[in-house]
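Standup notes
- DV: blocked on the single-chain target, sequence here:
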Amino acid sequence: MNVSPSRNEAMEGRISRRSLILMVSLAIAAAATVTVVALTPADGQSVADEDREGWMSYVDYYVGTGEVVDEIQTNLLNDLAGAENRIDAAIAEIDDGPIVQALVDAADRGVAVRVVADELFADHDGFAPLVDHDDIDVVFGDGELAYLPEPNLSPILEYCDSEATEHDDHITCAQARGGLPENNPRVIVRPAHYNVMSHTFFIIDTVDVWNISAPLNDEQPLWVAFRVLSEEIANSYEREFRQMHGGVFSTTLSVYNGPLKSVTHQNPLRWTNRGNLRIRFNPQERLTKNIIDETYRARASVYVMTENLTNTNLIDALLYKKEAGFDVRVLVGQGQATTLEDRIAPLEPRVATEDMGRLPTMVIFDSRRDRNGNRQARQVQVLSHELMRAQPFEVLRASPSDRVRFYPSDTFADGVLWEILESGSQRNPEIDAFLDAFNEQWSQAQ
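- DV (later): unblocked, structure below
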């Protein structure tokens, strides 16, 4: 005769199994935590501090000018000096002598140093010591690209006018008529400055990652950065690095003219000592599209800072929110495309003065109370490149023939978007520093 266990006995069995699973999970987490806590950074201070203990991802944020930039550079140099095994660096632009020297010194003492960079700056003096060093492996990408995105376009791609606008924010191609010389073998030729490797990050040994949303020169006074100790985040950056080091940049296309780069992870939300952090990579995760989605989702305010706002879909989203009574503030730089001045004029943007230099791209959502007086969860998004158009080209109907206009586009931009997110009504004081930085730049602009 079969005897069935009582309901209580069955429940006790389930509880016991759940307890066992929980105990195993905690044991695994504790073992992983020991890996992080056992680190010793270059400044000689043990990471086994009370504020770092128990965190799988420990992060420090930086945003500011002057002393903040000095602090970022000093701490980065300390970490580079303490590297023991490897340094993988993605560097868009660099004129910083001490950082270049730190990479050279690391290679001299036997650290494996690899660098990926933008081909547009390959001949700049900052890269020369890295390229000339026998033990530093440098790979350049995102140079000029010649391709035919659509076979039906070939009849109207005989002549391309790169002098169509003073700002050169687009190039127009048409049939060669009226004695115009042919200068294009019926393909779109995207110049190197239309294709962007915007990363500035360093992976040091196994868990130390620096992400700096600024070129390593004096063109951008306001730096936005984080330094994280996290094996998982380091692995994500390493997968992004390996694709570029292997020659797969945003301009590497498949047989169907689509980006060949693959997604490095599934957008996990990292729980850190300073709130929730999420990291995404372009072009495989379409970062500007995410900013557009969050703009429509916002419940109170949207603050945008970027050197050049050319994404018309984002402009439409911002106009929609402004017309609905939301607090929308747009701050653009001296590099703003002149051909879109009328389009963004209803947003009443402020323009950074020349002495403010290049602006980073940063968007802050819901820093104000909503129309009902309620606080909403805030969010900061920092993007490593400008808010460019999504479409790389469009066909225009024009007399006497059709024309094709192509643009700088985030389709051809290697970059990263990192987000700090609040959850529910719980406030994250880290966001205050980013809001203060925006307000400071806003007050200086015209």
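- Follow-up: The two ends are 88 Å apart (CA to CA).
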